[in-house]
Amino acid sequence: MSNVIDASGILAISTRLQRLADQLRKDGQLIYKAHGIEFEPKWFPVIYTLHQKGQLSVMEIATEIGYTHPSTISLLKELEKQKLIRSKKDKQDERKRLLSLTEKGEELILQMKPVWKRMQQALTSLLHTENNLMSAIEEVEQKMEKKGFFARERDL
Amino acid sequence: MSNVIDASGILAISTRLQRLADQLRKDGQLIYKAHGIEFEPKWFPVIYTLHQKGQLSVMEIATEIGYTHPSTISLLKELEKQKLIRSKKDKQDERKRLLSLTEKGEELILQMKPVWKRMQQALTSLLHTENNLMSAIEEVEQKMEKKGFFARERDL
DNA sequence: TGTATTTATGTAGTTAACTACGTAGTTTTA
DNA sequence: TAAAACTACGTAGTTAACTACATAAATACA
């Protein structure tokens, strides 16, 4: 990280968060590839949600993973193309599309589980510093829910 | 934040970092607007660097702010369009383009300084939790420089 | 000194999220 | 019970970063 950004510090925090996110995502991609697994890190929240909860609608998934529904739809499209998930109309409510994992999806998850474990260990070793990044994020997320950056500046 | 992501925890960290970055950037936009200042948060690193260091080339700015040069070029284009910076050829090295702030740029910075101060205070109140996010990021950045996520997983 | 390499800049296209808007079912209400 | 409002889903276009490739100037080297 550069001198000037370090000096200006906190004002460039958004930039730094984004860069960190990007590096982690890219390394994630490499790790899946290194294990011979065709899987994108960005698919994780959807796949994991469906694995945990079974059949869900588009909006339920979007809410669960915290994305907007258009973002979710584009992830679902990719996953359907990979034949990792499938969808069918909800008989009770014709507007809804119910998504679930395919056999292939379930099998891939079994294959990924040990890799997820290793990733978890690697991330833990990386993030477990004096100020724990994971906990820090959780704390900030909670504070933002009560009162965001904008409101805090306004009410100074 | 949703249940499933919380449960899957650390594996979705990249997603969470990105979302946090995004929220902070958006609130930053709103704050500038609320103060009647026409300025994008993403311009901050470039403007601040030029303010601190004076005349710099494209690559020098890119290195300083930690972006790739194409990203930097597109920021520079926007800032030139806003007439906040100007450029001229380097006489010593005809490949280089030297960027500097215009009068308008310098004036805008004077106008923004008190707002930056308030933002800094608001961010401090938001980020100063038990596990300080700013310090956590710095620590993780340092660890990643020594050995990234990919290498850590590989060498487990 | 002419050729090869490196460096600085630029362009094109990609990515992964977003907002805005549109349509079709479902539910509420006058 | 017809109209209004809401909800679910989808598409189009935007954004802010990126990678890959191209070109021109400067430098190194045979």
Protein model, in words:
Chains A, B: Keywords: DNA-binding. 2 copies of one chain form a homodimer. With 156 residues, chain A is mainly alpha-helical. Chain A has 8 helices and 3 strands. Chain A has a single domain, classed as Orthogonal Bundle (Arc Repressor Mutant, subunit A). Helices cover 67% and strands 8% of the residues of chain A. Chain A has a 3-stranded antiparallel beta sheet. In chain A, α3 (44-53) crosses α4 and α4 (58-65) packs across α5 (69-81). The two termini of chain A are 30 Å apart. Mean pLDDT of chain A is 89; it is low at 1-7. Chains A and B meet through α1, α2, α3, α4 and α6 of A and α1, α2, α3, α4 and α6 of B. The first copy, chain A, binds a DNA duplex (30 and 30 nucleotides) through residues 18-19, 22, 25-26, 42, 57-59, 67-71, 73-75, 93-97.
Low-confidence stretches of chain A: 1-7
* Integer average pLDDT of chain A: 89
What is the CATH fold-level name of chain A? Arc Repressor Mutant, subunit A
Task: Please write the CATH class name of chain A.
Answer: Mainly Alpha
Write a compact overview of the structure shown.
The structure is a homodimer of 156-residue chains. By secondary structure, chain A is mainly alpha-helical.
Based on the model shown, name its key terms.
homodimer, DNA-binding, mainly alpha, three-stranded antiparallel β-sheet, Arc Repressor Mutant, subunit A, 156 residues, 8 helices
Secondary structure layout:
Two copies of one chain form a homodimer.
Chain A: H1 3-8, H2 13-34, H3 44-53, E1 56-57, H4 58-65, H5 69-81, E2 85-89, E3 97-101, H6 103-127, H7 133-146, H8 149-154
The structure holds a DNA duplex (30 and 30 nucleotides).
Protein name (chains A, B): DNA-binding MarR family transcriptional regulator
GO biological process, one term (chains A, B): response to stress
Domain HTH marR-type (chains A, B): 10-146
